[in-house]
């Protein structure tokens, strides 16, 4: 089975280190979603009788030769695909909460306040210089993080849809939306965990 990247230790520092946040998401997507066809190909049972040179003389129909065993496919979804999606969702949800929470440790807060005060005290005469009235305040890091989380959630939705299309094509399973499949897996996963404190 595919080795999943270890979920990061969630902290505000992790979220505000936007490079680290994006690196985790990129690594998780590349190790599972970006290589979904290769993962599913690896699940196809190889020939039990060995290589038959005559097998190369004619092409097999793609659907017959490429379908993945339903049990192997289900195991892949349960143990690799859905856990990787869940780990990314937890990171994005946590960082989304950090982005909307007060940030008393913002290192740029004092600098922003000085810039804002300087702007309030500045005398502007737009007749002499029409550009003198322009002021672009520095964004708090929570706003930057919120924008990144929104972007990454959009990317995540696209990645999941594309991955799920490939899974649906290759696995002989009933057609369903990925949201429904993940919700059912999540419900089963939650109910199989022992209650905390036991």
TrEMBL record:
<feature type="compositionally biased region" description="Polar residues">
    <location>
        <begin position="46"/>
        <end position="60"/>
    </location>
</feature>
<protein>
    <recommendedName>
        <fullName>Caffeine-induced death protein Cid2</fullName>
    </recommendedName>
</protein>
<comment type="similarity">
    <text>Belongs to the MIX23 family.</text>
</comment>
<dbReference type="Pfam" id="PF09774">
    <property type="entry name" value="MIX23"/>
</dbReference>
<dbReference type="InterPro" id="IPR019171">
    <property type="entry name" value="MIX23"/>
</dbReference>
<feature type="region of interest" description="Disordered">
    <location>
        <begin position="46"/>
        <end position="66"/>
    </location>
</feature>
<dbReference type="InterPro" id="IPR016805">
    <property type="entry name" value="MIX23_fungal"/>
</dbReference>
<dbReference type="GO" id="GO:0005758">
    <property type="term" value="C:mitochondrial intermembrane space"/>
</dbReference>
């Amino acid at each position: 089975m595919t080795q999943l990247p270890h979920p990061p230790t969630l902290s505000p520092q992790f979220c505000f280190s936007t490079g680290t946040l994006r690196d985790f998401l990129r690594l998780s997507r590349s190790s599972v979603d970006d290589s979904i066809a290769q993962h599913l190909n690896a699940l196809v049972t190889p020939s039990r009788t060995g290589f038959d040179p005559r097998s190369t003389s004619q092409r097999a129909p793609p659907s017959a030769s490429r379908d993945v065993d339903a049990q192997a496919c289900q195991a892949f979804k349960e143990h690799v695909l859905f856990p990787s999606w869940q780990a990314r969702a937890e990171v994005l949800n946590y960082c989304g909460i950090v982005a909307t929470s007060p940030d008393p440790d913002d290192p740029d807060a004092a600098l922003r306040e000085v810039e804002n005060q300087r702007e309030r005290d500045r005398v502007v005469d737009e007749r002499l210089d029409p550009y003198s009235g322009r002021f672009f305040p520095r964004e708090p890091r929570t706003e930057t993080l919120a924008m990144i989380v929104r972007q990454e959630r959009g990317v995540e939705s696209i990645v999941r849809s594309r991955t799920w299309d490939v899974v649906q094509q290759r696995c002989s399973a009933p057609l369903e939306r990925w949201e429904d499949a993940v919700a059912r897996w999540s419900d089963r996963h939650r109910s199989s965990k022992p209650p905390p404190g036991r």
